[in-house]
Amino acid sequence: MLQKKFLKPFAASLLFFSLLAGSFTPTFNNEPTQIAEAALPKTATKVTVNEVVDGDTVKVTYNGKVETVCVILIDTLETKHPDKCVQLYGPEATAYTKKYLLDKSKTVSIELGVQQRDKYGRLLTYVYINETMFKKLLLQNGLARIAVYPPNTQYLDELKAVEAKAKSGIWSSKNATNGGCVPTKKPAPAPKPVPKSAPKPAPAPTKESF
Known about the structure:
alpha+beta; single chain
């Protein structure tokens, strides 16, 4: 009898925990894991950005000298080419580069490519904001596309992966992808001059009666 009295509460407790376990569904974080940026390369050097020429060209102070820097492995659409129109998303790329690289609260660094200068004497570099490779931001927002000029092909595979996911900007229309021009605003037509009204004829003299 004592055994039965002992087993009943035990059985009830066991049933309670079994039901509780059966109704419990474990939850998992289904959000994709963000890939952390790699540490800034040891060969990167901090610089001061003085001017943004366009989306992929800036002027910096490097080793005490003002240098023109070309951001390699990408190409932004033209805004100042002597033989080309201002292309779609070219002005946006320039504005984006100004926003980030001229921000004094951020640290800008450059890493030289294998080939360090082009035929114009510009430095060929990878540019970083803090520890983020700046060209990745341009690519993922559709403000640049990959342009390969060996031997500077470091990071090419990871940049291709970023570009492949881009949907906006130059990838938003065939016209933009093909380097279409920004529509030029036609000047408003000059207002037509209002014709002056002809002067009213003087009234005819009235005959005076005598």
